[in-house]
Design brief:
single chain; 139 residues; mainly alpha; Arc Repressor Mutant, subunit A; two-stranded antiparallel sheet; 7% strand; globular
């Protein structure tokens, strides 16, 4: 588990996606913002907030705010008004942000396929099922 955590912290998948030619943000941490916004709003909310981004990335609100600003400047994320309360703002992906998410997902799928090359379909399905079960209990 420590090896998995360290590899994710180093943003190794973002680097692999960039190496494969995907258009990726200059700062791999910004891709974390894009992923966090892509997850969608928390239960009961109609927009993704900076607080949601902070929680999903495991960073303090001021760090999340700086990362969100960088994602906005990179034109990957934009601010939107909450539908339920127009005074609140949230975050949404731009077209470039959606393209970055799709490129990252594609790179991840390809990377995981490489890692599990030679595994049976059942072993891959078991891994997916067990990892989903495990991560569902993380938070």
């Amino acid at each position: 588990m420590n090896r998995i955590r360290r590899s994710q912290t180093r943003r190794s998948l973002a680097r692999r996606a960039a190496a494969a030619g995907a258009e990726m943000p200059a700062d791999p941490a910004v891709l974390g913002v894009v992923d966090a916004v892509d997850e969608g709003p928390t239960d009961g909310a109609d927009v993704v907030s900076v607080a949601d981004v902070a929680d999903r990335l495991g960073v303090d609100p001021s760090r999340a705010s700086r990362l969100v600003k960088a994602a906005i400047e990179a034109e990957l994320v934009r601010r939107v008004a909450a539908q339920a309360d127009g005074r609140r703002t949230g975050l949404a992906l731009t077209r470039s942000g959606t393209a970055a998410v799709e490129a990252a997902h594609h790179a991840r799928r390809r990377y995981y396929a490489e890692l599990t090359d030679g595994w049976s379909a059942r072993d891959r399905a078991d891994l997916a099922r067990l990892l989903t079960r495990f991560t569902d209990h993380l938070g």
